[in-house]
Amino acid sequence: MNDFDDDDYLYDMYNASFASLKKPFSHPNDSIKATDKKTSRVIGGMKAAGVHSVSVEINGQSYSVPRYEYVKILEQDLKETRNKVRQLEDKISRMSRNYNKLVEVIRKMQRDLNNKLDAR
């Protein structure tokens, strides 16, 4: 595994998620550049480059520990996914209400039609 400690390298390569983490007092134009990449791309890029975790040796045993930046990106991705799910659930709810209204209108039209046909 590669262990890159150069934060500027990570910022340049994965600027979408590191814009708020690494350069909190950066220039306002950096926020425009920060929206260029989706979190899933950043996560995949970090894993592919091998910078998503760091090896730590404790009592002679080596452990792979996720980097702080990687965990933050995962949390951001989870938050975005939860927001998308909530939006889709709201949309399903609206569509279900509209469907039920349409069913009621159709049933009313059928009753009216049946009443007119019975009256003849």
Walk me through what this model shows.
With 120 residues, the protein is mainly α. It has one domain (7-119). 69% of the residues lie in helices and 10% in strands. It is built from 5 helices and 2 strands. A two-stranded antiparallel sheet has the order 1-2. A hairpin with a 2-residue loop joins strand 1 (53-58) and strand 2 (61-66). Helix 1 (7-13) packs across helix 2. It is rod-shaped.
Put the structure in a nutshell:
The chain has 120 residues and is mostly helical.
Please give the radius of gyration in angstroms. Answer: 27 Å
| Terminal Cα span | 85 Å
Q: How many beta-strand runs?
A: 2
Q: Unreliable stretches, pLDDT < 50, 5 or more residues?
A: 22-34
Which characteristics define this entry?
120 residues; mainly alpha; two-stranded antiparallel sheet; 5 helices
List the helices and strands and how they pair.
Blueprint: H1 7-13, H2 15-22, H3 30-34, H4 39-49, E1 53-58, E2 61-66, H5 68-119
Antiparallel strand pairs: 1-2
Helix pairs in contact: 1-2, 4-5
